[in-house]
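Help needed: design a sequence for this.
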């Protein structure tokens, strides 16, 4: 019982782990508002990855704990794939 040698792959992964884009509004747009400064930020986490040495349909992600114990790290076995997360934040000063 256990993984076969034919099922062992190089775990190299190319990943876009986190991306954050911010925009600070220029002061000339804020002159007639109560804000001293205002910025808007959009963030995404776990947006894309490619395990290029692993066959396409194997669901390999080294951030997943597979069975939760032992050497099964990286295999999506009885659990979902890594989730993507998105967020927006607004920072204002008065």
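Sure. Designed sequence:
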């Amino acid at each position: 019982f256990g993984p076969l040698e034919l099922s062992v792959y190089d775990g190299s992964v190319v990943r876009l782990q986190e991306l954050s884009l911010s925009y600070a509004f220029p002061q000339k747009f804020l002159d007639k508002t109560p804000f001293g400064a205002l910025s808007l930020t959009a963030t995404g986490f776990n947006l894309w990855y490619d395990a290029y040495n692993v066959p396409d349909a194997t669901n390999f992600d080294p951030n997943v704990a597979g069975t939760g114990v032992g050497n099964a790290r990286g295999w999506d076995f009885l659990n979902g794939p890594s989730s993507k997360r998105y967020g927006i934040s607004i920072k204002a000063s008065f």
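The first strand starts at residue 14 and ends at 24.
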